[in-house]
Amino acid sequence: MRVAIVDLGTNTTRLLVADVSDRHVEEVDRRNSITRLGEGVDSGGRLLDRAMERVFTVVAEYRSAIDELGAESAVAVATSAVRDAANGEEFRRALRERFDLDARIISGDEEARLTFAGATLEREPGGDPLLVLDIGGGSTEFVIGRAGEEPAFHVSTQAGSVRQTERHLHTDPPVFAELEEMREEVRAIVEAAVPADVRRGVADGVAVAGTPTSVAAIDQELDPYDPSKVHGYRVSIESCERIERLLAELPEEERRKVTGLHPERAPTIVAGAVILVETMKAFELASIEVGEHDILYGAALQAAG
User: Fold this and answer.
1) Cis geometry, peptide bond prior to residue 129 (ω within 30 degrees of 0)
2) Are residues 163 and 283 in the same domain?
3) Are 133 and 265 in the same domain?
4) Total domains in the fold of the chain
5) What gap in Å lies between CA 95 and CA 90, rounded to an integer?
6) Long-range contacts formed by 258-263: CB under 8 A, 24+ apart
7) Is residue 66's pLDDT more than 90?
């Protein structure tokens, strides 16, 4: 069955068109646009008109691709920014009226479950407990379980890269005090959200979404970006800390030129890198695997039944 999934994230709007059969997902087309839908939501509680228009422009392009590729089913999932916004339902209605796209505002629990399903799709069932870390713009999900099973533990937190950037980083480049304040908040969020005994029980981790894939690309100095070299790549805690320091020391215009980093991720990548590093420290992970398969894959499996 050919399905199309549009992920309406806080920082990015993404499209996956895939053929799904027998729990196998074959990509036909995949696109990614940084639209910053969650701009200002943390402080104002509403989706801004300009942010919604950025998304509408991209969705119009995606709708054309969905129709041209003959997807039998088209589904959109809206996550943290739309969940938190007072006008989230208004945004959802506009998507339906303008693009005939039925967007579901999913809970943090469902987001975690779909992400885990996508991230562990290629793994053999069973094994030791695995952390799937999904660093989003508005929220970060921590999902723990064994491949082929429902997650044993999952929690959605407020440690998103856009949210943390808007809360803490007000100078360019950020000063030490801002970075320390952000690190302390992220550390506190992780430790409060995931009990110590649950963290100790994790044997390994897979990190998905734009921050870890960017870190993997930077670590390998990929130009152009190559998903086949990112998916399955292991990045060490030392490399993550080195890359975090490098990015934090550069003004935004210089960060945009870092090899392996999409220029439009430059405004929020420092916060994302801090979330990645503090999570690895909290779970005592010496390295973490980076995955390209995330909620898009999980939602594709669900859409295909």
Assistant:
1) no
2) yes
3) yes
4) 2
5) 9
6) 258/218, 259/218, 259/221, 259/222, 259/223, 260/214, 260/216, 260/217, 260/218, 260/219, 260/220, 260/221, 260/222, 260/223, 260/225, 261/214, 261/217, 261/218, 262/34, 262/210, 262/214, 262/225
7) yes
Q: What is the domain range of residue 282?
A: 124-291
User: Is the Cβ–Cβ distance between 290 and 240 less than 8 Å?
Assistant: no
4 HSE (CA, 13 A, CB side): 22
**Residue-level length of the chain:** 305
Q: Are residues 159 and 187 in the same domain?
A: yes
Share of the chain above pLDDT 70, in %: 100
Residue 178 has pLDDT above 90, yes or no: yes
- Containing 216, the helix (H) or strand (E) segment is helix 210-220
- Helix then strand then coil, in percent of the chain rounded to 5, is 45, 25, 30
Both 76 and 222 in one domain: the answer is no
**Do residues 289 and 204 lie in contact, with contact meaning Cβ atoms separated by under 8 Å?**
yes
User: Considering 61, 78, 106, which residue would you say is the last residue of a domain?
Assistant: 106
